[in-house]
Amino acid sequence: MNDQTKHWIMAIRPRTLPAGAAPVILGLGLAWEQGLCWWAAAAALACCIFMQIGANLVNDYFDYAHGVDDKDRLGPDRVTQQGLIPPGQVKAAFMACFGAAFLLGVALVYRGGWPIVIIGLASIAFAYLYTGGPKPLSYLGLGEVLAFIFFGPVAVGGTYYLQTLEISKTVIVAGMGPGFLAAMLMSVNNLRDIASDTRTGKRTVAVMLGERRARIFSLSLLLFSWLMPLVYLGEHPAKLIVIAAPLSAQFFKDHWRAISNAPLDKKMNLVLAATGQYTFVYSLLFAIGVAV
Protein backbone atom coordinates (compact mmCIF):
# COMPACT_ATOMS: atom_id res chain seq x y z
CA MET A 1 0.00 0.00 0.00
CA ASN A 2 1.53 3.31 -1.05
CA ASP A 3 1.55 6.47 1.06
CA GLN A 4 -1.20 8.18 -0.93
CA THR A 5 -3.59 5.28 -0.33
CA LYS A 6 -2.75 5.33 3.37
CA HIS A 7 -3.48 9.05 3.49
CA TRP A 8 -6.90 8.61 1.88
CA ILE A 9 -7.76 5.80 4.29
CA MET A 10 -6.75 8.13 7.12
CA ALA A 11 -9.03 10.84 5.70
CA ILE A 12 -11.99 8.47 5.27
CA ARG A 13 -11.68 7.27 8.90
CA PRO A 14 -12.95 3.73 8.33
CA ARG A 15 -13.41 3.14 12.08
CA THR A 16 -16.37 5.53 11.99
CA LEU A 17 -18.23 3.66 9.27
CA PRO A 18 -19.77 0.84 11.36
CA ALA A 19 -21.34 3.41 13.67
CA GLY A 20 -22.71 5.23 10.62
CA ALA A 21 -24.25 2.00 9.33
CA ALA A 22 -25.77 1.10 12.71
CA PRO A 23 -29.15 2.86 12.31
CA VAL A 24 -29.66 1.27 8.88
CA ILE A 25 -29.11 -2.16 10.44
CA LEU A 26 -31.66 -1.43 13.16
CA GLY A 27 -34.17 -0.17 10.59
CA LEU A 28 -33.78 -3.39 8.62
CA GLY A 29 -34.24 -5.43 11.78
CA LEU A 30 -37.47 -3.61 12.57
CA ALA A 31 -38.75 -4.31 9.02
CA TRP A 32 -37.55 -7.93 8.90
CA GLU A 33 -40.85 -9.65 9.70
CA GLN A 34 -42.60 -7.79 6.88
CA GLY A 35 -40.01 -8.87 4.32
CA LEU A 36 -37.08 -6.89 2.94
CA CYS A 37 -36.57 -5.22 -0.41
CA TRP A 38 -32.92 -6.18 -0.75
CA TRP A 39 -31.90 -3.71 -3.45
CA ALA A 40 -33.33 -0.85 -1.38
CA ALA A 41 -31.56 -2.19 1.72
CA ALA A 42 -28.22 -2.32 -0.11
CA ALA A 43 -28.73 1.14 -1.62
CA ALA A 44 -29.67 2.65 1.76
CA LEU A 45 -26.59 1.12 3.40
CA ALA A 46 -24.30 2.35 0.60
CA CYS A 47 -25.89 5.80 0.76
CA CYS A 48 -25.27 5.91 4.51
CA ILE A 49 -21.61 4.96 4.04
CA PHE A 50 -21.06 7.61 1.36
CA MET A 51 -22.68 10.20 3.61
CA GLN A 52 -20.46 9.23 6.55
CA ILE A 53 -17.29 9.39 4.43
CA GLY A 54 -18.38 12.71 2.95
CA ALA A 55 -19.03 14.14 6.41
CA ASN A 56 -15.60 12.98 7.60
CA LEU A 57 -13.92 14.68 4.64
CA VAL A 58 -15.95 17.86 5.15
CA ASN A 59 -14.80 17.95 8.79
CA ASP A 60 -11.19 17.41 7.73
CA TYR A 61 -11.38 20.20 5.14
CA PHE A 62 -13.34 22.87 6.99
CA ASP A 63 -11.83 22.46 10.46
CA TYR A 64 -8.51 23.21 8.77
CA ALA A 65 -10.00 26.10 6.77
CA HIS A 66 -11.52 27.61 9.93
CA GLY A 67 -8.26 27.26 11.85
CA VAL A 68 -9.65 24.78 14.41
CA ASP A 69 -7.06 22.06 13.73
CA ASP A 70 -3.55 22.91 14.91
CA LYS A 71 -0.41 21.19 16.20
CA ASP A 72 -2.01 20.70 19.64
CA ARG A 73 -4.95 18.70 18.29
CA LEU A 74 -5.75 15.61 20.40
CA GLY A 75 -7.95 13.86 17.87
CA PRO A 76 -6.86 11.55 15.02
CA ASP A 77 -4.51 13.08 12.46
CA ARG A 78 -6.20 15.22 9.79
CA VAL A 79 -4.77 14.98 6.29
CA THR A 80 -5.55 18.57 5.27
CA GLN A 81 -3.97 20.11 8.36
CA GLN A 82 -0.85 17.95 7.95
CA GLY A 83 -0.52 18.73 4.24
CA LEU A 84 -0.79 15.04 3.29
CA ILE A 85 -3.53 15.67 0.72
CA PRO A 86 -4.11 19.04 -0.98
CA PRO A 87 -7.30 20.80 0.22
CA GLY A 88 -8.69 20.89 -3.32
CA GLN A 89 -8.52 17.11 -3.58
CA VAL A 90 -10.23 16.66 -0.21
CA LYS A 91 -13.00 19.04 -1.33
CA ALA A 92 -13.43 17.17 -4.62
CA ALA A 93 -13.62 13.88 -2.71
CA PHE A 94 -16.39 14.97 -0.37
CA MET A 95 -18.33 16.44 -3.30
CA ALA A 96 -17.98 13.08 -5.09
CA CYS A 97 -19.24 11.23 -2.00
CA PHE A 98 -22.27 13.49 -1.69
CA GLY A 99 -22.85 13.09 -5.43
CA ALA A 100 -22.82 9.30 -5.10
CA ALA A 101 -25.21 9.49 -2.13
CA PHE A 102 -27.49 11.76 -4.18
CA LEU A 103 -27.57 9.32 -7.10
CA LEU A 104 -28.37 6.44 -4.76
CA GLY A 105 -31.06 8.62 -3.24
CA VAL A 106 -32.61 9.15 -6.67
CA ALA A 107 -32.94 5.38 -7.01
CA LEU A 108 -34.47 5.18 -3.53
CA VAL A 109 -37.01 7.86 -4.43
CA TYR A 110 -38.37 5.37 -6.98
CA ARG A 111 -39.12 3.09 -4.05
CA GLY A 112 -40.16 5.57 -1.34
CA GLY A 113 -41.32 8.73 -3.09
CA TRP A 114 -41.14 12.31 -1.84
CA PRO A 115 -40.45 11.51 1.84
CA ILE A 116 -37.10 10.11 0.71
CA VAL A 117 -36.36 13.31 -1.23
CA ILE A 118 -36.84 15.34 1.95
CA ILE A 119 -34.76 12.97 4.10
CA GLY A 120 -31.98 12.74 1.52
CA LEU A 121 -31.59 16.46 0.89
CA ALA A 122 -31.80 17.27 4.60
CA SER A 123 -29.13 14.65 5.39
CA ILE A 124 -26.73 15.99 2.76
CA ALA A 125 -27.29 19.54 4.00
CA PHE A 126 -26.60 18.48 7.59
CA ALA A 127 -23.44 16.57 6.65
CA TYR A 128 -22.09 19.66 4.87
CA LEU A 129 -23.27 22.40 7.22
CA TYR A 130 -22.05 20.57 10.33
CA THR A 131 -18.58 22.05 9.78
CA GLY A 132 -19.02 23.78 6.39
CA GLY A 133 -20.46 27.14 5.47
CA PRO A 134 -20.00 30.54 7.11
CA LYS A 135 -21.64 29.48 10.40
CA PRO A 136 -20.93 25.76 10.98
CA LEU A 137 -23.62 24.09 13.07
CA SER A 138 -21.04 22.25 15.18
CA TYR A 139 -19.67 25.63 16.32
CA LEU A 140 -23.11 26.63 17.61
CA GLY A 141 -23.66 23.75 20.03
CA LEU A 142 -25.99 21.85 17.67
CA GLY A 143 -23.79 18.83 16.97
CA GLU A 144 -25.35 16.46 19.49
CA VAL A 145 -28.92 17.42 18.59
CA LEU A 146 -28.40 16.93 14.87
CA ALA A 147 -26.48 13.67 15.35
CA PHE A 148 -29.37 12.37 17.47
CA ILE A 149 -31.95 13.31 14.84
CA PHE A 150 -30.19 12.20 11.66
CA PHE A 151 -28.41 9.08 12.97
CA GLY A 152 -31.40 8.11 15.08
CA PRO A 153 -35.09 8.48 14.18
CA VAL A 154 -34.43 9.81 10.67
CA ALA A 155 -31.99 7.07 9.60
CA VAL A 156 -33.85 4.23 11.34
CA GLY A 157 -37.28 5.50 10.34
CA GLY A 158 -36.17 6.22 6.76
CA THR A 159 -34.71 2.73 6.37
CA TYR A 160 -37.85 1.14 7.79
CA TYR A 161 -40.06 3.25 5.52
CA LEU A 162 -38.09 2.19 2.44
CA GLN A 163 -38.82 -1.41 3.30
CA THR A 164 -42.46 -1.21 4.40
CA LEU A 165 -43.67 2.12 2.94
CA GLU A 166 -45.11 2.95 6.35
CA ILE A 167 -43.89 4.36 9.66
CA SER A 168 -44.93 4.01 13.29
CA LYS A 169 -44.28 5.55 16.70
CA THR A 170 -42.58 2.32 17.80
CA VAL A 171 -40.01 2.63 15.01
CA ILE A 172 -39.28 6.27 15.85
CA VAL A 173 -38.83 5.46 19.54
CA ALA A 174 -36.55 2.51 18.76
CA GLY A 175 -34.56 4.81 16.47
CA MET A 176 -33.80 7.04 19.43
CA GLY A 177 -31.47 4.32 20.74
CA PRO A 178 -28.71 4.71 18.13
CA GLY A 179 -29.59 8.41 18.05
CA PHE A 180 -28.57 8.84 21.68
CA LEU A 181 -25.35 6.92 20.99
CA ALA A 182 -24.58 9.08 17.94
CA ALA A 183 -25.05 12.14 20.15
CA MET A 184 -22.78 10.48 22.73
CA LEU A 185 -20.09 10.03 20.07
CA MET A 186 -20.31 13.72 19.31
CA SER A 187 -20.30 14.58 23.00
CA VAL A 188 -17.20 12.49 23.79
CA ASN A 189 -15.44 14.01 20.79
CA ASN A 190 -16.25 17.50 22.06
CA LEU A 191 -15.27 16.58 25.62
CA ARG A 192 -11.84 15.48 24.38
CA ASP A 193 -11.41 18.74 22.46
CA ILE A 194 -12.82 21.07 25.11
CA ALA A 195 -9.53 22.89 25.68
CA SER A 196 -8.69 23.48 22.02
CA ASP A 197 -12.29 24.37 21.14
CA THR A 198 -12.37 26.94 23.95
CA ARG A 199 -9.11 28.40 22.68
CA THR A 200 -10.31 28.68 19.08
CA GLY A 201 -13.83 29.90 19.88
CA LYS A 202 -15.67 26.74 18.82
CA ARG A 203 -18.81 26.82 20.97
CA THR A 204 -19.72 23.18 21.50
CA VAL A 205 -22.02 21.77 24.18
CA ALA A 206 -18.95 20.65 26.12
CA VAL A 207 -17.52 24.18 26.07
CA MET A 208 -20.84 25.61 27.25
CA LEU A 209 -21.29 23.02 30.02
CA GLY A 210 -17.71 22.86 31.28
CA GLU A 211 -15.69 19.68 31.76
CA ARG A 212 -17.47 18.14 34.76
CA ARG A 213 -20.99 18.59 33.44
CA ALA A 214 -19.90 17.58 29.93
CA ARG A 215 -18.71 14.24 31.35
CA ILE A 216 -22.10 13.76 33.04
CA PHE A 217 -23.90 14.72 29.83
CA SER A 218 -22.00 12.11 27.79
CA LEU A 219 -22.81 9.34 30.26
CA SER A 220 -26.45 10.47 30.46
CA LEU A 221 -26.80 9.93 26.71
CA LEU A 222 -25.52 6.37 27.20
CA LEU A 223 -28.13 5.77 29.90
CA PHE A 224 -30.93 7.14 27.71
CA SER A 225 -29.95 4.72 24.92
CA TRP A 226 -30.49 1.80 27.29
CA LEU A 227 -34.11 2.81 27.83
CA MET A 228 -35.19 2.37 24.22
CA PRO A 229 -34.95 -1.46 24.08
CA LEU A 230 -36.85 -1.53 27.38
CA VAL A 231 -39.60 0.63 25.92
CA TYR A 232 -39.74 -1.66 22.89
CA LEU A 233 -39.88 -4.73 25.15
CA GLY A 234 -42.80 -3.19 27.04
CA GLU A 235 -44.75 -3.09 23.77
CA HIS A 236 -43.49 -6.48 22.54
CA PRO A 237 -42.94 -8.71 25.63
CA ALA A 238 -41.98 -11.72 23.51
CA LYS A 239 -38.90 -9.92 22.12
CA LEU A 240 -36.81 -10.48 25.26
CA ILE A 241 -33.56 -10.73 23.29
CA VAL A 242 -33.56 -6.94 22.75
CA ILE A 243 -32.21 -6.71 26.31
CA ALA A 244 -28.87 -7.90 24.92
CA ALA A 245 -28.36 -4.43 23.39
CA PRO A 246 -28.00 -2.49 26.67
CA LEU A 247 -26.45 -5.46 28.49
CA SER A 248 -23.56 -5.53 26.00
CA ALA A 249 -22.42 -2.21 27.47
CA GLN A 250 -20.72 -4.12 30.28
CA PHE A 251 -17.97 -5.16 27.85
CA PHE A 252 -17.09 -1.48 27.43
CA LYS A 253 -17.28 -0.49 31.10
CA ASP A 254 -13.62 0.59 31.31
CA HIS A 255 -14.29 3.13 28.58
CA TRP A 256 -17.38 4.48 30.33
CA ARG A 257 -15.27 4.85 33.46
CA ALA A 258 -12.74 6.83 31.43
CA ILE A 259 -15.46 9.25 30.35
CA SER A 260 -16.21 9.79 34.01
CA ASN A 261 -12.73 10.57 35.30
CA ALA A 262 -9.84 9.95 32.88
CA PRO A 263 -7.54 12.78 31.75
CA LEU A 264 -8.56 14.49 28.52
CA ASP A 265 -5.62 13.44 26.40
CA LYS A 266 -5.00 11.36 23.28
CA LYS A 267 -6.15 8.22 25.11
CA MET A 268 -9.69 9.58 24.79
CA ASN A 269 -9.45 8.57 21.12
CA LEU A 270 -9.66 4.96 22.31
CA VAL A 271 -12.82 5.82 24.23
CA LEU A 272 -14.27 7.46 21.14
CA ALA A 273 -13.48 4.41 19.02
CA ALA A 274 -15.04 2.13 21.65
CA THR A 275 -18.20 4.26 21.68
CA GLY A 276 -18.46 3.82 17.92
CA GLN A 277 -17.97 0.07 18.27
CA TYR A 278 -20.62 -0.12 20.97
CA THR A 279 -23.05 1.83 18.76
CA PHE A 280 -22.69 -0.86 16.10
CA VAL A 281 -22.91 -3.77 18.59
CA TYR A 282 -25.93 -2.20 20.32
CA SER A 283 -27.80 -1.63 17.04
CA LEU A 284 -26.96 -5.10 15.71
CA LEU A 285 -28.17 -6.82 18.90
CA PHE A 286 -31.26 -4.63 19.02
CA ALA A 287 -32.00 -5.53 15.37
CA ILE A 288 -31.51 -9.25 16.01
CA GLY A 289 -33.73 -9.10 19.09
CA VAL A 290 -36.50 -7.44 17.08
CA ALA A 291 -36.19 -9.77 14.10
CA VAL A 292 -36.14 -13.18 15.82
Quickly describe the structure:
With 292 residues, this protein is mainly α.
Write the layout of secondary structure elements.
Layout: H1 3-12, H2 17-31, H3 38-65, H4 87-112, H5 114-129, H6 143-150, H7 153-164, H8 169-192, H9 194-200, H10 205-209, H11 211-235, H12 244-247, H13 253-261, H14 268-291
Task: Give the number of DSSP strands.
Answer: 0
- The gyration radius over C-alpha positions equals 19 Å
The total count of helices amounts to: 14
Proportion of β residues?
under 5%
Class of secondary structure makeup:
mainly alpha
Largest β-sheet summary: none
Mean pLDDT equals 89
Tell me the distance between the termini. 42 Å
Count of discrete structural domains: 1
Helix content: over 70%
Compressed to H and E, one letter per element, the order equals: HHHHHHHHHHHHHH
Instruction: Name the CATH class.
Output: Mainly Alpha
CATH topology: Farnesyl Diphosphate Synthase
Second CATH tier, the architecture: Orthogonal Bundle
GO molecular function: 1,4-dihydroxy-2-naphthoate polyprenyltransferase activity
Function: Conversion of 1,4-dihydroxy-2-naphthoate (DHNA) to demethylmenaquinone (DMK).
Organism: Desulfatibacillum aliphaticivorans
Pathway: Quinol/quinone metabolism; menaquinone biosynthesis; menaquinol from 1,4-dihydroxy-2-naphthoate: step 1/2
Structural commentary:
The chain crosses the membrane at residues 38-58, 92-110, 116-133, 145-164, 170-191, 212-232, 268-291. It is an enzyme of class 2 (transferase). Keywords: Cell inner membrane, Cell membrane, Membrane, Menaquinone biosynthesis, Transferase, Transmembrane, Transmembrane helix. With 292 residues, this protein is mostly helical. It has a single domain, classed as Farnesyl Diphosphate Synthase, CATH 1.10.600. The chain has 14 helices and no strands. It has helices at 3-12, 17-31, 38-65, 87-112, 114-129, 143-150, 153-164, 169-192, 194-200, 205-209, 211-235, 244-247, 253-261, 268-291. The model has no long low-confidence stretch (mean pLDDT 89).
